User: Fold this.
Amino acid sequence: MGPSISEDPFTMKFISSGLSHDCLRPWGKILGLAWLLCMGCRPQEAEVSAGAQKITSASHPEIRPHYALLQIDDCQGVCDGSGGVAIDEKHFVIVNDETSELLIYERSRSGLPKQRLNIRKHLDLKKKEEADLEAMARVGSTFYVIGSHSRDNEGKKQKERRAFMGFSLEPEAGLFRLQVEGKPYDDLMSDLLKDPSMAHLSLESAYRQAGDDPKGLNIEALCAGANNSLWIGFRGPLIDGKALMVQLSNPQKVCFGTQARFGGYALLDLGGQSIRGADSLGEDILIIADDPWKQKGANLFFWDGKTSTPEPIPMDGLALLDPEAVFIFPDTQWQILQVLSDDGGRRRGEKDCGNLDTPSAMGFRSASFAY
Assistant:
């Protein structure tokens, strides 16, 4: 069982950290005031610190963790952001699973990307190959991107989907310069299947299934863990109805050809849902999950990295999206979440986005949610 309401670690983190106008400076005083009014914040709550451990959401229901939709931006250029992560307080980068590009957008602004970085040549992709890049994470100054590692819908192996790559983004003349660290690694799944501690999970059987089969192996999330590690989140398979997270202990060394080492795994009870995206702050992790059969809507969960039952967190407005990535910015941390929507099947004019040819006509929604 997860922690009781009175022991809810997510609630306690927000109570002890409080809410301040400083975290809202990127939006200005007017939006900051509107945000505070909308969330029902009170000055005395913002000042709680030393005595925070005595206040619980059981005795004060008004401070129960809760997110509400703040803003939706129309990010043009592609139909979805398969994975995303903040670069700094003003920019974020997304990876697209079809074009194998990195696209850099300005925070809280609709329109075309500020910069497009084609990484196909770094991944050694042939003309018609797709790396199916599904997730991104950041550890220190290093960004990581990972492919789904799934087979195609006919169950055939796709070597190009087994990419794992590290890189840096250095500011340069108002843009960002890409520097690949080492070279892409494509033996991650082989290393995982050989790990004796994972043998009883039957991942070998899942790896033989088509990627779009709920029983098939499919990576969808990536986030930083303790000691410069990464947590890899699997959309499939569900194992006894639980979602799988695997800890990669040496991601930076892997980028330079060292065999992957794993620090263990976790089977998470997400109510039968599977992982779509994740981001972390310290050792605490936020997870976006949905039903692989699309019979239930997506949900947000808080995981402390220890328990097997993450806490569900209410998120008003999430049902408007088809979420596949979640991340935080360094200045607002947990107080503002950014969620990217997979809008390939969403109508834009007379066609679905996925059927459009002009980048300026394409777009996906990037939504901000405030605590």
User: Anything to note?
Assistant: Confidence is low (pLDDT under 50) at residues 1-7, 14-63. The chain has seven helices and 23 strands.
